[in-house]
Amino acid sequence: MTRIGKTLKRLKNEKRSALVLFLTAGDPSVKQTVDLVRAAFDAGADIVEIGVPFSDPVADGPVIQESYLRAIDKGTNVKDAMEIARKVRTTHPDSPIVFMLTCNLVLTYGVKKFMKDSAECGVDGLIL
User: Which of 20, 96, 125, 126 is the most buried (most CB within 10 A)?
Assistant: First the structure.
């Protein structure tokens, strides 16, 4: 069973909803994002969604748009988001990590390569 599946099964048995937190990769920095994701899990988050910055996030609200732009200004990219997941996975091997990103980033990266690389770094799901 997947990490997400195990988490949802546990939550069902506990008769509670999931606490899912969203953090933008690279805002305020890549290193701090790793620390924030770890802290979120340590504080009780069931799933952490990592937003991968995109230069034209028109489907997102102003808070996420601004965080994406700050991260992009610092040079954050898809590979940085994958490195964040990889580092978090070393300390939280059973905690689900999901990426939220635009299809354009996946297409630019290459669909097969993106799926392979994101799975290898421990990403459990995608919100496109």
Answer: 96
Q: Which residues are catalytic?
A: 49, 60
How far is residue 6's CA from residue 1's CA, in Å, rounded to a whole number? Answer: 6
Domains and CATH numbers, the chain: 19-127 (3.20.20.70)
Supply the angle between the helices 30-42 and 78-91 in degrees, to the nearest 10: 40
Residues of the chain where predicted confidence (pLDDT) is lower than 50: none
Residues in the chain: 128
Mapping DSSP to helix (H, G, I), strand (E, B) and coil, where does residue 92 land?
coil
Does the pTM of the predicted model rise above 0.85? yes
Distance CA 72, CA 54 (A): 7
ω into residue 28 within 30 of 0, thus cis? yes
Q: Which of 68, 80, 62 is nearest to 23 (CA)?
A: 68
> For the chain, how are helix, strand and coil distributed in percent, rounded to 5?
55, 15, 35
* Structure confidence at residue 58 (pLDDT): 74
What pLDDT, on the 0 to 100 scale, is given for residue 19?
Answer: 98
